[in-house]
Design goal:
118 residues, alpha+beta, Elongation Factor Tu (Ef-tu), domain 3, 4-stranded antiparallel β-sheet, 21% helix
């Protein structure tokens, strides 16, 4: 069964979300609104990964627009943290609580490969 294409932005937005998320896995979810403007931290319920380090890229998905914001960690991320520190990022609009935060499977596999390679 092929993709269903209908008029309007909604069907395109859904298709874009699915295509972007195929190579990512969720590590956290925001628990408060992220206000528009420059931000250096993201409030989250709790994180679930210990494999992320300063300089790694994570992706925050705006549920309203489907946009994925690439964010750079400014420090190591430990499981159970309630705030994710990032280098300054300018958000054009508010992002509502409940937005998902992802990490790339490819980046994770590269990290594992690098540590296992002779």
């Amino acid at each position: 069964m092929g993709n269903i294409i209908t008029e309007g932005d909604t069907s395109l937005l859904i298709e874009t979300k699915l295509n972007n998320l195929n190579s990512l896995f969720q590590i956290a979810e925001t628990n408060d609104t992220i206000t528009a403007g420059n931000q250096t931290s993201i409030p989250v319920t709790t994180t679930t990964q210990d494999l992320l380090f300063a300089g790694d890229t994570i992706y925050l998905q705006d549920d309203d627009t489907g946009e994925l914001h690439a964010l750079t960690l400014d420090g190591d991320l430990l499981s159970g943290e309630a705030v994710i520190g990032i280098t300054s990022h300018n958000f054009a609009t508010d992002i509502q609580a409940g937005a998902k935060i992802y990490y790339s499977y490819a980046d994770l596999l590269n990290r594992i490969y690098t540590h296992l390679s002779p």
